[in-house]
Each structure stands twice: as C-alpha cells, then as structure tokens.
Amino acid sequence: MGGGDLNLKKSWHPATLKNQERVWKEERKHAEEQHKIEQMKKELMEERQLQELQRLQEESGQRKRSDRLDWMYAAPNQGAGGGNNADEMEEYLLGKKSVDNLIRDKNSKETVASSAAERFAVSNANANNARDIQSKIREDPLLMIKKREQQSLRVIVDNPFMLKELWNGKKDKRNKKRKYEHGHSSHPSIRHHDKDRKRTSRGYHKRIS
C-alpha cells in the first residue's frame, strides 16, 4: 500500500500549499520594498543633481539663491528628533530598515494620538454623567428620607443600649396585647350571664303586672 510521502503532511514541509503561499507573500513583500527603495533612491539622486545644478549656476552668477522652496527639503528634519529622521531615511535608502516600518510608525503615532483624544473625551463625558447623577440623588427628597432612616437605623444597631431598650419596648407591647386578648376572650361569658339575668327580671315584672 502506497501511503505517499508522509512528510507532505508535516506543517514544516516546504512543499505544502500553506508554506508555498507564505513564501510567495514574503517574496512579493520583499519585491515591493525593493521597488520603494529604488524609487526613493531615484528621487534623492534627482534632487541632489538639481541642487548641484543650482549651486553651479549660483557660483557662476547666472541666478540668485532662492530660499522660498527650502522648507520643502527641510520639512522632514524639523521638530523634535529631526536628526533621527534624517538617519532613519538614510537607513531606509540603504535597505537597513523596511519602508513599511516608517508607515507603520507614523500610523501608530496617529492612532495613539487619536485614541488619547478619544479617551479624554470619554472620561469627560463619564465625569459629567457621574456629576449629574450625584446631583440628582442629592436633590431627590425620597432618597434623602430613606438615607436618614438608614442612618437612624445604623445608630440604633451600633448602640447596644438603644437596641436593648427597643427590644424591651417591643416585648412590653406584645405582653400588653396578649393580656388584652386574654381578657377580651373572657368577656362573652359575662355578657351572656348578664343577658340571662335581664331576661329573667323582665319576665318577672311582666307576670306581676
């Protein structure tokens, strides 16, 4: 039975479709980077040739120096870390760094700035909402009454003497209620006895009359 090449089932084998696709993507990415580097080298060379031509014309007196467009060439080096930008550009042109890293760094800085602004806006909105809720709670009379009741209950619970007096008062009320109910339950027999006496008395008076 021919099982074929078992190595083809291994994830590390270069002949697998997934690995071939990965190699193709890496080669394409490398080719794009080389194209970008060559394009930047070409632009830099043309710029240097133009600057050299302008310098020769100025030395020969054919034209005067104009600084109106110098800001276009100085722009990448302005601001904090301008020297680092020049060194980085040189490394990109020499192929020591990937051009995608430059784009990625720029995008990451913009993302960090935008996310920081969004977090600041959200925190301000949350703070405003929290202050609104707190002010509404403070102004609600029902909540204020409930809060006072809770505070009073907390004072009683934390004070054992007040808690004992409250418990004794409840016991006295229960005892009085039991005595009242017990006494009230004995009244019907007394009332029946009084009624019988009244009936007998009325019958006696009728017979006499």
From TrEMBL:
The keyword Nucleus applies. Residues 11-47 form the CBF1-interacting co-repressor CIR N-terminal domain. It is found in: Nucleus. GO terms for cellular component: U2-type spliceosomal complex. Its main location: nucleus. Residues 171-181, 189-209 have a biased composition (Basic residues). It holds the Pfam family CWC25. Residues 1-36, 168-209 are annotated as: Disordered. GO terms for biological process: mRNA splicing, via spliceosome. Residues 19-36 have a biased composition (Basic and acidic residues). Keywords: Coiled coil, mRNA processing, mRNA splicing, Nucleus, Spliceosome. The keyword Nucleus applies. InterPro entries: CIR_N_dom, CWC25, CWC25_splicing_factor. It comes from the Eukaryota. Belongs to the CWC25 family. PANTHER family: CELL CYCLE CONTROL PROTEIN CWF25, PRE-MRNA-SPLICING FACTOR CWC25 HOMOLOG. This is CBF1-interacting co-repressor CIR N-terminal domain-containing protein.
